[in-house]
């Protein structure tokens, strides 16, 4: 079609948009701070994005009780692999390309938390045991870390704003989630990591909080 062309460089892309505001750049942190930790503790659902060695992408949902993903420290997350359909698409991808993107959500809260990092698939009994449910402990625990820190970015929840978010009943932890996660001032506004807003190098653990603001 006349007047249309494919974008082939970041320079061309950025020419179509105004630069990000300084406030937006200042929302990126270099760790999972206490606000990010609280969000993860209240989240019962995460979307996990992976890719194989050839770059073929996959995104899969993971869920559990609020806080089923645990914050080991400000630069390390632990995610248990629960029994599923045994396709092992995501885990297979991680054996080829050990990088992951996580998008945490809390029902009823129009904000999200994104975390990107490098992954180890661990079978250590001491890592699996805290995730035991009844007689079953996970066979594999994903240990997600960041090389040199855990940057975080907070944005307006533009993608979720027009979407109706509603569960059958008010979710467990929703009151706490609204109190602790819904207000931007409670989510640690002002942390700084990357000043230029560009993509981080592979292995950098990125916690991105998408909320009001």
What would your notes on this structure say?
- With 213 residues, this protein is α+β, with helices and mostly antiparallel strands.
- The chain has a single domain, classed as Electron Transport, Fmn-binding Protein, Chain A (Pnp Oxidase, Chain A, Roll).
- The protein is built from 6 helices and 9 strands; from the N terminus they run H-H-H-E-E-E-E-H-E-E-H-E-E-H-E.
- Strands 1, 2, 3, 4, 5, 6, 7, 8 and 9 form a 9-stranded mixed β-sheet that branches.
- Strand 8, helix 6 and strand 9 form a beta-alpha-beta unit.
- It is globular, with a radius of gyration of 18 Å.
- The protein starts with 9 loop residues before the first helix and ends with a strand.
- About 14% of the residues have low confidence.
Quick recap:
With 213 residues, the protein is an alpha+beta fold. It contains 6 helices and 9 strands; from the N terminus they run αααββββαββαββαβ.
Entry keywords:
Pnp Oxidase, Chain A; 9 strands; alpha+beta; 9-stranded mixed β-sheet; 213 residues; 6 helices; globular
- Based on the coordinates given, report the CATH architecture: Roll
Q: How far apart, in Å, are the first and last alpha carbons?
A: 37 Å
For this structure, the CATH topology is: Pnp Oxidase, Chain A
Structural class: alpha+beta
Instruction: Give the total of domains.
Output: 1
Strand content: 15-25%
Helix content: 10-25%
CA gyration radius, whole angstroms: 18 Å
On the 0 to 100 scale, the average pLDDT is 77
State the fourth-level CATH superfamily: Electron Transport, Fmn-binding Protein, Chain A
Tertiary shape:
globular
> What does the main sheet amount to?
9 strands, mixed
Q: For this structure, what is the CATH class?
A: Mainly Beta
Count the DSSP helices: 6
Oligomer: single chain
What is the number of strand segments?
9
Uncertain regions spanning at least 5 consecutive residues? 164-168, 170-174, 184-203
How do the helices and strands follow one another from N- to C-terminus?
HHHEEEEHEEHEEHE
């Amino acid at each position: 079609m006349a007047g249309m062309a494919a974008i082939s460089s970041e320079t061309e892309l950025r020419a179509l948009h105004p630069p990000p505001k300084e406030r937006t750049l200042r929302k990126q942190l270099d760790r999972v701070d206490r606000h990010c930790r609280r969000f993860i503790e209240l989240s019962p659902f995460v979307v996990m994005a992976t890719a194989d060695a050839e770059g073929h992408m996959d995104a899969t949902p993971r869920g559990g009780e609020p806080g089923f993903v645990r914050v080991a420290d400000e630069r390390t997350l632990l995610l248990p692999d629960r029994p599923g359909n045994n396709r092992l698409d995501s885990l297979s991808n991680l054996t080829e390309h050990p990088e992951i993107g996580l998008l945490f959500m809390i029902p009823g809260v129009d904000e999200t938390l994104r975390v990107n990092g490098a992954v180890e698939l661990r079978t250590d009994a001491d890592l699996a045991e805290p995730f035991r449910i009844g007689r079953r402990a996970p066979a594999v625990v994903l240990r997600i870390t960041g090389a040199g820190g855990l940057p975080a970015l907070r944005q307006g929840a533009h993608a979720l704003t027009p979407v109706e978010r509603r569960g059958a009943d008010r979710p467990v932890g929703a009151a706490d989630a609204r109190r602790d996660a819904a207000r931007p001032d409670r989510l640690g506004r002002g942390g700084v990591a990357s000043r230029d807003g560009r993509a981080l190098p592979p292995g950098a653990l990125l916690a991105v909080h998408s909320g009001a603001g």
